[in-house]
Amino acid sequence: MLTEISGKQIAVSDTLIPTDSIEAFVAPYRNRINEILDSTIAYAPKDITKNDGILNTTAGNLMADAVLELAGPIFKSRTGSSLNFVLLNHGGIRSIISAGNVSARTAYEIMPFENTIVVVGLKGDAILEMVDYLIKAKRPHPLAGIQIILNKDDTINTIKIQGENFDKNKTYYVGTSNYLVNGGDRMDFFKNKLTFTETDYLIRNIMIDYFTKKDTIAPITDDRFIKLDY
Questions:
Q1: What is the pLDDT of residue 230?
Q2: Which pLDDT tens digit goes with each residue over 100-143?
Protein backbone atom coordinates (compact mmCIF):
# COMPACT_ATOMS: atom_id res chain seq x y z
CA MET A 1 0.00 0.00 0.00
CA LEU A 2 1.46 3.38 -1.09
CA THR A 3 1.61 5.72 1.90
CA GLU A 4 4.16 8.36 0.92
CA ILE A 5 5.89 9.91 -2.07
CA SER A 6 9.03 11.98 -1.69
CA GLY A 7 11.34 13.73 -4.13
CA LYS A 8 14.34 15.99 -4.38
CA GLN A 9 15.65 18.46 -6.90
CA ILE A 10 18.76 17.38 -8.83
CA ALA A 11 20.73 20.22 -10.38
CA VAL A 12 21.85 19.62 -13.97
CA SER A 13 25.55 20.48 -14.24
CA ASP A 14 28.79 19.18 -15.74
CA THR A 15 29.44 17.25 -12.51
CA LEU A 16 26.90 14.63 -13.55
CA ILE A 17 28.46 11.53 -15.07
CA PRO A 18 27.09 10.76 -18.58
CA THR A 19 25.39 7.42 -19.12
CA ASP A 20 26.90 5.73 -22.18
CA SER A 21 23.68 4.09 -23.32
CA ILE A 22 21.74 7.37 -23.19
CA GLU A 23 24.57 9.23 -24.96
CA ALA A 24 24.54 6.64 -27.74
CA PHE A 25 20.77 6.94 -28.08
CA VAL A 26 20.81 10.76 -28.28
CA ALA A 27 23.93 11.16 -30.46
CA PRO A 28 22.35 10.66 -33.92
CA TYR A 29 19.54 13.11 -33.13
CA ARG A 30 22.01 15.68 -31.77
CA ASN A 31 24.26 15.27 -34.79
CA ARG A 32 21.35 15.73 -37.21
CA ILE A 33 20.14 18.87 -35.40
CA ASN A 34 23.65 20.34 -35.43
CA GLU A 35 23.97 19.53 -39.13
CA ILE A 36 20.76 21.44 -39.91
CA LEU A 37 21.57 24.39 -37.62
CA ASP A 38 25.09 24.82 -38.99
CA SER A 39 24.34 24.50 -42.71
CA THR A 40 25.05 27.73 -44.58
CA ILE A 41 21.87 29.41 -45.84
CA ALA A 42 23.14 32.94 -46.57
CA TYR A 43 26.23 35.14 -46.61
CA ALA A 44 26.93 38.46 -44.86
CA PRO A 45 29.69 40.61 -46.47
CA LYS A 46 30.01 42.74 -43.31
CA ASP A 47 29.18 42.53 -39.61
CA ILE A 48 25.53 43.35 -38.87
CA THR A 49 24.97 44.85 -35.43
CA LYS A 50 22.38 46.71 -33.37
CA ASN A 51 24.89 49.38 -32.33
CA ASP A 52 26.02 50.91 -35.64
CA GLY A 53 23.44 53.71 -35.79
CA ILE A 54 21.78 56.28 -33.54
CA LEU A 55 18.08 55.80 -34.33
CA ASN A 56 18.28 52.90 -36.79
CA THR A 57 20.84 50.11 -37.15
CA THR A 58 21.72 47.44 -39.66
CA ALA A 59 20.51 44.58 -37.43
CA GLY A 60 17.27 46.35 -36.53
CA ASN A 61 16.54 47.30 -40.13
CA LEU A 62 17.24 43.74 -41.25
CA MET A 63 14.86 42.22 -38.71
CA ALA A 64 12.05 44.72 -39.29
CA ASP A 65 12.37 44.48 -43.08
CA ALA A 66 12.21 40.68 -42.86
CA VAL A 67 9.05 40.80 -40.75
CA LEU A 68 7.37 43.31 -43.09
CA GLU A 69 8.20 41.25 -46.17
CA LEU A 70 7.31 37.78 -44.85
CA ALA A 71 4.53 38.39 -42.32
CA GLY A 72 2.72 40.87 -44.57
CA PRO A 73 1.41 38.25 -47.03
CA ILE A 74 0.15 36.06 -44.17
CA PHE A 75 -1.77 38.95 -42.64
CA LYS A 76 -3.13 39.87 -46.08
CA SER A 77 -4.37 36.33 -46.77
CA ARG A 78 -6.11 36.08 -43.38
CA THR A 79 -7.72 39.51 -43.21
CA GLY A 80 -7.64 41.06 -46.67
CA SER A 81 -5.82 44.07 -45.21
CA SER A 82 -2.25 45.20 -45.73
CA LEU A 83 0.44 45.31 -43.08
CA ASN A 84 1.45 48.99 -43.00
CA PHE A 85 4.59 48.91 -40.88
CA VAL A 86 6.59 47.01 -38.29
CA LEU A 87 7.86 47.95 -34.84
CA LEU A 88 10.04 45.62 -32.77
CA ASN A 89 12.29 46.27 -29.78
CA HIS A 90 15.99 46.96 -29.76
CA GLY A 91 16.54 44.73 -26.73
CA GLY A 92 15.06 41.75 -28.57
CA ILE A 93 18.14 41.50 -30.79
CA ARG A 94 20.50 39.34 -28.75
CA SER A 95 23.56 38.95 -30.96
CA ILE A 96 25.43 40.37 -33.92
CA ILE A 97 25.67 38.64 -37.29
CA SER A 98 29.36 38.30 -38.03
CA ALA A 99 30.67 38.70 -41.56
CA GLY A 100 30.80 35.37 -43.37
CA ASN A 101 28.47 32.42 -43.62
CA VAL A 102 25.04 32.69 -42.01
CA SER A 103 23.21 29.63 -40.71
CA ALA A 104 19.98 28.78 -38.94
CA ARG A 105 21.98 28.79 -35.72
CA THR A 106 22.66 32.48 -36.39
CA ALA A 107 18.91 33.11 -36.24
CA TYR A 108 18.70 31.29 -32.89
CA GLU A 109 21.55 33.45 -31.57
CA ILE A 110 20.00 36.79 -32.56
CA MET A 111 16.46 35.75 -31.58
CA PRO A 112 16.52 33.02 -28.87
CA PHE A 113 12.98 33.81 -27.70
CA GLU A 114 9.79 32.08 -28.83
CA ASN A 115 8.09 35.35 -29.81
CA THR A 116 5.60 35.40 -32.66
CA ILE A 117 4.50 38.25 -34.88
CA VAL A 118 1.07 39.71 -34.21
CA VAL A 119 -0.64 42.50 -36.13
CA VAL A 120 -2.68 45.15 -34.35
CA GLY A 121 -4.87 47.89 -35.75
CA LEU A 122 -4.11 51.32 -34.28
CA LYS A 123 -5.86 54.63 -34.85
CA GLY A 124 -3.86 57.74 -35.61
CA ASP A 125 -3.80 59.00 -32.04
CA ALA A 126 -2.22 55.74 -30.88
CA ILE A 127 0.35 56.04 -33.66
CA LEU A 128 1.26 59.49 -32.32
CA GLU A 129 1.62 57.97 -28.85
CA MET A 130 3.97 55.42 -30.38
CA VAL A 131 6.08 58.13 -32.03
CA ASP A 132 6.21 60.05 -28.74
CA TYR A 133 7.41 56.85 -27.04
CA LEU A 134 10.16 56.42 -29.66
CA ILE A 135 11.27 60.05 -29.29
CA LYS A 136 11.57 59.72 -25.52
CA ALA A 137 13.18 56.27 -25.67
CA LYS A 138 16.07 57.54 -27.86
CA ARG A 139 16.80 53.94 -28.84
CA PRO A 140 16.99 52.42 -32.32
CA HIS A 141 13.94 50.20 -32.03
CA PRO A 142 13.59 48.28 -35.33
CA LEU A 143 11.17 49.90 -37.77
CA ALA A 144 10.10 49.16 -41.34
CA GLY A 145 7.41 50.69 -43.54
CA ILE A 146 7.34 53.94 -41.58
CA GLN A 147 9.59 57.00 -41.77
CA ILE A 148 9.96 59.35 -38.82
CA ILE A 149 12.01 62.53 -39.20
CA LEU A 150 12.58 64.67 -36.12
CA ASN A 151 13.64 68.28 -35.91
CA LYS A 152 16.71 69.26 -33.95
CA ASP A 153 14.54 69.97 -30.89
CA ASP A 154 12.92 66.49 -31.02
CA THR A 155 9.63 67.77 -32.44
CA ILE A 156 8.10 65.85 -35.33
CA ASN A 157 9.10 67.05 -38.80
CA THR A 158 7.63 64.23 -40.92
CA ILE A 159 5.78 60.95 -40.49
CA LYS A 160 5.23 58.83 -43.57
CA ILE A 161 3.76 55.36 -43.70
CA GLN A 162 4.34 53.32 -46.83
CA GLY A 163 5.59 56.54 -48.47
CA GLU A 164 2.39 58.49 -47.77
CA ASN A 165 1.85 61.29 -45.28
CA PHE A 166 0.50 60.14 -41.93
CA ASP A 167 -3.29 60.50 -41.58
CA LYS A 168 -4.50 60.83 -37.98
CA ASN A 169 -8.00 59.67 -38.95
CA LYS A 170 -6.82 56.43 -40.50
CA THR A 171 -6.39 52.98 -38.93
CA TYR A 172 -2.95 51.47 -39.48
CA TYR A 173 -1.96 47.81 -39.16
CA VAL A 174 1.25 47.38 -37.20
CA GLY A 175 3.30 44.19 -37.05
CA THR A 176 5.01 43.62 -33.72
CA SER A 177 5.86 40.84 -31.30
CA ASN A 178 3.43 39.19 -28.90
CA TYR A 179 5.83 40.23 -26.13
CA LEU A 180 5.48 43.94 -26.90
CA VAL A 181 1.74 43.92 -27.44
CA ASN A 182 1.35 42.36 -23.99
CA GLY A 183 3.16 45.20 -22.26
CA GLY A 184 6.82 44.46 -22.97
CA ASP A 185 9.18 47.47 -22.91
CA ARG A 186 6.22 49.52 -21.60
CA MET A 187 4.83 50.08 -25.09
CA ASP A 188 1.50 51.01 -23.57
CA PHE A 189 0.14 52.50 -26.79
CA PHE A 190 -0.62 48.92 -27.88
CA LYS A 191 -3.36 48.83 -25.19
CA ASN A 192 -5.42 51.01 -27.54
CA LYS A 193 -5.47 48.39 -30.30
CA LEU A 194 -8.66 48.08 -32.33
CA THR A 195 -7.88 44.68 -33.83
CA PHE A 196 -5.53 41.80 -33.05
CA THR A 197 -4.31 39.09 -35.42
CA GLU A 198 -1.90 36.34 -34.40
CA THR A 199 0.19 35.12 -37.36
CA ASP A 200 1.69 32.17 -35.44
CA TYR A 201 4.96 33.00 -37.22
CA LEU A 202 7.99 32.92 -34.92
CA ILE A 203 10.33 35.86 -35.47
CA ARG A 204 13.22 33.40 -35.47
CA ASN A 205 11.62 31.39 -38.27
CA ILE A 206 11.05 34.60 -40.22
CA MET A 207 14.78 35.28 -39.98
CA ILE A 208 15.64 31.76 -41.16
CA ASP A 209 13.21 32.04 -44.09
CA TYR A 210 14.52 35.52 -44.95
CA PHE A 211 18.15 34.36 -44.91
CA THR A 212 17.27 31.44 -47.18
CA LYS A 213 15.36 33.68 -49.57
CA LYS A 214 17.96 36.46 -49.83
CA ASP A 215 21.17 34.45 -50.03
CA THR A 216 23.31 37.58 -49.43
CA ILE A 217 22.28 39.92 -46.61
CA ALA A 218 23.73 43.43 -46.53
CA PRO A 219 21.39 45.79 -44.64
CA ILE A 220 22.30 49.46 -44.27
CA THR A 221 21.34 52.28 -41.94
CA ASP A 222 19.10 54.78 -43.72
CA ASP A 223 16.63 57.64 -43.17
CA ARG A 224 13.69 55.64 -41.79
CA PHE A 225 14.18 57.20 -38.34
CA ILE A 226 16.50 60.18 -38.13
CA LYS A 227 16.94 63.50 -36.38
CA LEU A 228 17.86 66.62 -38.34
CA ASP A 229 20.85 68.58 -37.09
CA TYR A 230 19.61 72.00 -38.21
A1: 82
A2: 999 999 999 999 999 999 999 999 999 999 999 999 999 999 99
Q: What is the pLDDT of residue 207?
A: 97
- Report how far residue 112's alpha carbon sits from residue 92's, in angstroms, rounded to the nearest whole number: 9
Phi-psi map region of 145: left, alpha, beta (phi>0 left; psi -120 to 50 alpha):
left
Of the candidates 197, 168, 170, the residue with the CA atom closest to the CA atom of residue 181: 197
Average pLDDT over residues 42-51: 97
Question: How much is the pLDDT for 149?
Answer: 98
Q: How many residues does the chain have?
A: 230
Determine phi and psi for 116, rounding to 5 degrees: -110, 165
CA distance 217 to 196: 31
Q: What burial letters (b/e) apply to 114-131, b meaning 16+ CB within 10 Å?
A: ebbbbbbbbbeebbbbbb
- What CA–CA distances, in Å, run from 26 to 10, 32, 202, 213? 21, 10, 26, 32
Helices H / strands E in the chain, number of each: 6, 11
Report the distance separating Cα 20 and Cα 70, nearest Å.
44
